[in-house]
Amino acid sequence: LGKELDLFTFHELSPGSAMFYPKGAYIYNKLQQFIREEYHKRSYQEVITPQLFHKSLWETSGHWEHYKDNMFLTQVEGQDFSLKPMNCPSHLLIYKRKLHSYRDLPIRMADFCCLHRNELSGVLGGLLRVRKFSQDDAHLFMTEEQLEDELLAIIDFAEFIYKKVFNFDYHIELSTKPEKAMGAPELWQKAEASLQNALKKKNLPFKINPGDGAFYGPKIDFHIKDAIGRSWQCATIQLDFNQPQRFDANYEGKDGKKHQVIMVHRALLGSLERFIGVLTEHFTGRFPLWLSPTQVIILTVADRHIAFAETIRKQYHDAGLQVEVDDRPESVPKKVRDAQLHQWNYILVVGDKEIQDNTVTVRTRKNEILGMKKGDVFLNELLAEIEKKEIK
After folding, report:
1. Is the CB of residue 247 less than 8 Å from the CB of residue 61?
2. 353 included as an active-site residue
3. Hey, how many other C-beta atoms are within 10 angstroms of the C-beta on 88?
4. β-pair partners for 305
5. Which residue of 146, 228, 257, 350 is surrounded by the most CB atoms within 10 Å?
6. What residue ranges define each of the domains in the chain, with the CATH number in brackets?
7. Is 295 exposed, middle or buried (0-12, 13-18, 19+ CB in 10 A)?
8. pLDDT in tens, 136-158
9. What is the mean pLDDT of residues 77-81?
10. Other CB atoms closer than 10 Å to residue 344's CB: what's the count?
């Protein structure tokens, strides 16, 4: 579908890394814009971090010991470096640039920077398993007293995305300590109990996934079901007492003493590449209007209607819509079929009658005939549908 709809492709010269064409990049950027708008409502702050770090950072974080086989390694001036597979260590560096007071917390630090993980070629699979990707990644730094409220707020955020916006079926798993893990057992027990308590407080059913936690902490995973019933892990919420300890990341408490900060890792869409792959299959290319790169196409009956069609196109384009004119010398039924094959959400036909009445005749990609509408009236209907993020 990605190739059919001209969204993305892969090239043998860069295995496991997607190339997004303009329509695919539109979806990618719209998802980021959506998350950024939600971040603003929830007081997240976005940062930008480097791609390449010296191995000493990964030794401190534990990745060099526990995750090195999945990292892309290189040498710079005789020194060992790696492309980052995760953002958490760099966010800890930002957190540690000064001693924070308890009054500064919680800090919600977000990052869309690219990540690279050295997946084996045999497990690569379209957008669903890639080597280069971006996440709606964030790390939250807080006191122990703030932990429960922050976990509950993240779960609410995830449910808003999966239930209200995309209407996905999903199930939740709590993944516990893996065989190869770092940190004291009591820290793991404390972290697992905190995640369990948050899920129970929200009355959310979940199953235990023994031994599938990250090497630094347990996690809550949201597994969404696509249109053909396959399950994909997208959102993840991970509680980490270990990395803050290794980085000596502290805050000054009410008592004037230093206390170790608690860090929560979370990505709600998860890999944008994977999420777009799941969305493309789930909607079979019929993206909701707010996310669609093919929102409105205007079909002319004859050449004399092109100027009017262009006037409508400019009005809709200036309002922020993805809109094109099909002025080919083809029959209207053929143009309609082509527009439906390319999944244009709305198909507007303009001819003599429409010019006379200053209207457009509207139909949907599902071939629903909505009839003649004033161009500005229909534009307002479209903008309202986008604002509500309706799924039609």
Report:
1. yes
2. no
3. 24
4. none
5. 350
6. 8-282 (3.30.930.10), 289-388 (3.40.50.800)
7. buried
8. 999 999 999 999 999 999 999 99
9. 97
10. 26
The closest of 148, 155, 161, 165 to 106, measured between CA atoms, is 148
Cα 246 to Cα 154: distance, rounded to the nearest angstrom: 25
Of 154, 125, 129, which is closest to residue 142 (Cα–Cα)?
154
Q: State how far the alpha carbon of 339 is from the alpha carbons of 17, 57, 169, 313, 333, in Å.
A: 30, 52, 30, 16, 10
Q: Kindly state the percentage of the chain with pLDDT values over 70.
A: 99
CB 204 within 8 A of CB 170: no
User: For the chain, what's the residue count?
Assistant: 392
The region that residue 78 occupies, defined by phi over 0 for left and psi between -120 and 50 for alpha, beta otherwise, is: left
246 is catalytic: no
Catalytic residue among 63, 223, 265, 266, which?
265
Q: Decide if 91 is catalytic.
A: no
139 is catalytic: yes
Contact 280, 1 (CB under 8 A): yes
Which tokens is 155 given?
């779960």
Six-digit token pair at 252?
């000054």
Angle, CA of 282, 135 and 1, to the nearest 5° = 30
Q: Is 135 a catalytic residue?
A: yes
To 5 degrees, how large is the angle CA 171–CA 282–CA 152?
35
234 is a catalytic site residue: no
Long-range contacts of 255-260 (CB under 8 A, 24+ apart): 258/99, 259/102, 259/143
The answer, as to whether pTM is greater than 0.85, is yes
**Catalytically annotated residue among 23, 135, 233, 322:** 135
Please name the residues in contact with 332: beta carbons below 8 A apart, sequence gap of 6 or more: 299, 301, 349
Asked whether 231 and 173 are in contact (CB, 8 A), the reply is no
Only one residue has tokens 């814009």, namely 33
Distance of alpha carbon 5 from alpha carbon 18, whole angstroms: 15
The residue to which tokens 């640039």 are assigned? 97
Q: Which of 214, 219, 210, 226 is nearest to 154 (CA)?
A: 219
Q: Is 88 a catalytic residue?
A: yes
DSSP string, 300-367: ESSGGGHHHHHHHHHHHHHTT--EEEE--SS-HHHHHHHHHHTT-SEEEEE-HHHHHHTEEEEEETT-
Round to whole Å and give the CA distance between 312 and 316.
Answer: 6
